[in-house]
Every structure is written in C-alpha cells, then in structure tokens.
Amino acid sequence: MSISLYAFNCGWFQCKAGFFIEGLEDQSFVRSPVPAYLIDHPKGRALFDTGLGERNRRAIEARLPHDKFGLELFEGMDIAARLRAIDVDPSSINWIIASHLHNDHCGGMMFVPNATVIVQSKEWAAAQACEDPWVYNKVDFDTGHSIKAIDGELDLFGDGTVMIVPTYGHTPGHQSAIVRLAGGEILLAADCCYTERNLNERVLPGFTFDKEAGLATLDRLAQLRAKGTRIMFGHDATMWKSVTEGAPVS
Description:
About 20% of the residues lie in helices and about 30% in strands. It is of the alpha/beta class.
C-alpha cells in the first residue's frame, strides 16, 4: 500500500538557544522552522500539525530583529499555500493530527476547513481549562472543527502505517506519529523533542509540563532510534537543512 510523507516549514520560531536546552547558558538567538507534515495515504490525507496561523503573519520587511523572541509567518508559508504548491487542495484533508495545542502547532487549522482534529483527551481538556492565552489560545484551536479526542495510541488507517502515539511531557497530552514508509520508519516528534541535541544529551527544554514524563519520552525515542527509526525533531534548524520541501520524504 503506497503512502507518502511531505514536510513543510510553516513559520519561524526565534528564541534564545537556552529555550530549547535546559540549563544552557548560551544567550544567542536561533531561528528555527515550524514544521507541518502531509501524510498521503490511499484511505485519506492527514496533516501532522498545521504550523502558524493569521495572528502571527507579518510582512517580510517587518521581520523580527535577530535578537528578539517571537513567532512569524510570511506570505506563502501557511499550510494552505504549502499544500497548493504541490497541487493538494486544503479542503481535501481528512484529518489533522494535533501534536498539541500550542499556536505554532495548531494555528494553521483555520486554513484546513474540512478536517477532523485528532487530539489526546488530556490535551484538549488542558487547553480548554487554561486561562493563560500565551500558553493556549482558543483563537488557534477552538475553530469549529470536528474533534476526535483519543486516549493513548491510535492506528489511524487500520493498517499500521500511521500510528499516533502519546509522548507526554512537554504538555499534558502531547502526541507524536510514527509513519511507516517503504524506506523505513519515521517518527514525527513535534515538541516532545525539539532538537537532536535534546535526545543525544537526554536533556529537556526549560518549558516542560511534566519532566518525569518528558524524560521517559526521550528514552522511548532513543530506543526507537537505536532500532533504526528516523526522528524528525520539532524545531531543529540543522535537521531542516536536509529536508526538501514539496518532495516526498524517504
């Protein structure tokens, strides 16, 4: 059964290096991608995350200074534009797999009108209850989409090719996806593991809801990597240099 995976950068996340690595004293700023992925399966199309939305859009000439924290989305970078660039109609997407409901991962849901959002029940409850719009903002995720709240793992297409798996720690209900391609298994990590350095050094970012769960998740990723699974990290600028947008990931 043929299945394809495509990677897109749907915005920029600019922050101090120490934001990603707890305890790191490096105060320099890094500019990292905001990934989203299309999974094209004979039984339907799914997005893993949707990148940034309209409230982070800015003109290219108004981009952030190199030493300022923030998120930004430029013209042509939103998930709808990325999909249309490879001749995929955003209205044809059946599922959105929301790794979690922070705005750089779910902000683009507004561009994908017909999809059902798959989210862990714990995540949906946490986002609904949160009163801090910097952490969870209903503008991003409470968009009128149908919601499929799950608990634990889900075999999306019933054939083992796309497994949604809980990777708790960063948020109460963070989840990742394991995609089994002809060339091997790929895990879409999102923010359970920002960068390869987090995994190599078994170190969490400073912003972690449950550190014990987060370390357990890193251990699971390390075991999968040792068995040959390729990890697509959540905000790793170095890794992203090896990604060709608009071409199938292999």
